C-alpha cells in the first residue's frame, strides 16, 4: 500500500497530469457512488482541466443506465442530476475526457457500451494508442477515437475465442494478452465491466481501495467533503473503488502495477 498523503502532487488539481480520468466501483451489494462522484466530477473543470466531456454507466440487474455529456463534468446539468439521484449499483464505470484523438462529440464520449453474449459491457479508457486496428467482427466503432477501436478489438477478440461467457480465470487470461498487445501502441489504462465483475488495467496511473468493516470517515481531495461510512454501511459490505488518482486524502490507496490486470468481483480484488 502507498500512503498517498505523502506522495500526491502538491499542486491543486494535479496540474502535472495530462490524461483522462477514470472511476470505477465494484461492490457486493448495490451501493451509490455519490461521495466518490462528488470529488471525481470536480476534476472536469475545477480541480483539473479535463473539459472534453464525461460519462457514467450504472449496471442494475441485466440493465444499464448510461449518462454521457460533452460539457465539462463540473458544470454539466447531467452530472448535477446524477449527483442528486443516488443510483444504487454493484458495478459503475465513469470517465472524464481529455481528448487526444477524435473531436469533442457524444460518439467519442466514454464509457462506451456494447452487447456481448446477451449482456451489456462498459469500457472507459485513458491513454493514447497510436495504431489500433479493429479485429474483424460485428463490433465496429461509431466515433473516431483510439479508445473505442480498442474496445471493439477486445470484444471481437473475445467473441472469436469463446462461444459464451467463459469462467473468470479464462476471461482474465485472454484479456491480459489483449491488454499487453494494446499497451505496445502507447499509454493504456482502462476499466471494463460486464455487470458481474470489473477489470482494471494500467500502464501508468491507476489506483484502488477496498473498503470493508470496520468502516470510518473519508475526506475528499477535490472537495471539502467528509463522510463517515460507518453510518452508511453494514458490517458485511465490501466496496472497491478504482480511480486514476486517489479521491481521498485520509485513506490508504494501492497503486495498480504497470501492465497489471486486476479483476474485481463482489468488492474483492480476486485476480491480478
Structure explained in plain terms:
With 272 residues, this protein is α+β, with helices and mostly antiparallel strands. The chain has a domain at 19-125 and 190-271: Aminohydrolase, N-terminal nucleophile (Ntn) domain (Glutamine Phosphoribosylpyrophosphate, subunit 1, domain 1). Helices cover 19% and strands 35% of the residues. It has five helices and 15 strands. The chain has helices spanning 4-7, 34-42, 77-84, 146-161, 168-183; strands spanning 21-32, 54-60, 63-69, 88-96, 112-116, 119-129, 186-193, 198-202, 207-212, 217-219, 226-228, 238-243, 254-255, 260-265, 268-271. The chain is globular and about 50 Å long.
- Whole-angstrom Rg: 17 Å
Rounded mean pLDDT score: 90
Q: Runs with pLDDT <50, length 5+?
A: 1-17
Instruction: Count helical runs.
Output: 5
Strand order of the biggest β-sheet:
3-2-4-1-12-9-13
CATH topology of the domain at 19-125 and 190-271: Glutamine Phosphoribosylpyrophosphate, subunit 1, domain 1
**Amino- and carboxy-terminal Cα gap:** 15 Å
* Biggest sheet record: 7 strands, antiparallel
Structural class computed from helices and strand pairing? alpha+beta
Helix content: 10-25%
The total strand number stands at 15
| Name of the CATH architecture of the domain at 19-125 and 190-271 | 4-Layer Sandwich
- β content, as a range? 25-35%
SSE string, helices as H and strands as E: HEHEEHEEEHHEEEEEEEEE
Classified by CATH, the class of the domain at 19-125 and 190-271 is Alpha Beta
Give the overall form.
globular
Q: Give the full name of the CATH homologous superfamily of the domain at 19-125 and 190-271.
A: Aminohydrolase, N-terminal nucleophile (Ntn) domain
Amino acid at each position: 500500500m502507498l500512503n498517498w498523503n505523502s506522495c500526491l502532487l502538491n499542486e491543486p488539481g494535479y496540474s502535472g497530469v495530462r490524461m483522462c480520468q477514470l472511476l470505477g466501483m465494484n461492490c457486493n451489494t448495490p451501493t451509490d457512488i455519490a461521495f466518490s462522484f462528488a470529488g471525481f466530477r470536480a476534476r472536469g473543470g475545477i480541480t483539473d482541466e479535463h473539459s472534453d466531456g464525461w460519462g457514467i454507466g450504472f449496471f442494475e440487474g441485466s440493465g444499464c443506465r448510461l449518462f454521457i455529456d460533452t460539457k465539462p463534468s463540473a458544470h454539466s446539468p447531467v452530472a448535477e442530476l446524477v449527483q442528486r439521484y443516488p443510483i444504487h449499483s454493484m458495478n459503475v464505470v465513469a470517465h472524464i475526457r481529455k481528448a487526444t484523438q477524435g473531436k469533442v462529440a457524444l460518439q467519442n464520449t466514454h464509457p462506451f457500451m456494447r452487447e456481448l453474449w446477451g449482456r451489456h459491457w462498459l469500457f472507459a479508457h485513458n491513454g493514447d494508442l497510436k495504431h489500433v486496428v479493429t479485429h474483424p467482427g460485428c463490433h465496429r466503432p461509431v466515433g473516431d477515437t483510439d479508445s473505442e477501436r480498442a474496445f471493439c478489438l477486445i470484444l471481437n477478440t473475445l467473441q472469436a475465442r469463446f462461444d459464451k461467457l467463459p469462467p473468470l480465470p479464462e476471461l482474465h487470461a485472454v484479456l491480459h494478452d489483449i491488454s499487453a498487445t494494446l499497451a505496445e501502441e502507447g499509454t493504456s489504462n482502462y476499466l471494463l465491466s460486464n455487470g458481474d465483475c470489473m477489470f482494471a488495467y494500467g500502464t501508468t496511473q491507476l489506483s484502488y481501495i477496498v473498503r470493508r468493516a470496520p468502516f470510518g470517515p473519508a475526506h475528499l481531495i477535490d472537495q471539502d467533503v467528509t463522510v463517515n461510512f460507518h453510518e452508511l454501511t453494514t458490517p458485511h459490505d465490501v466496496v472497491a473503488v478504482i480511480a486514476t488518482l486517489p479521491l481521498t486524502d485520509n485513506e490508504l490507496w494501492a497503486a495498480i502495477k504497470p501492465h497489471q490486470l486486476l479483476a474485481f468481483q463482489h468488492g474483492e480484488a480476486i485476480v491480478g
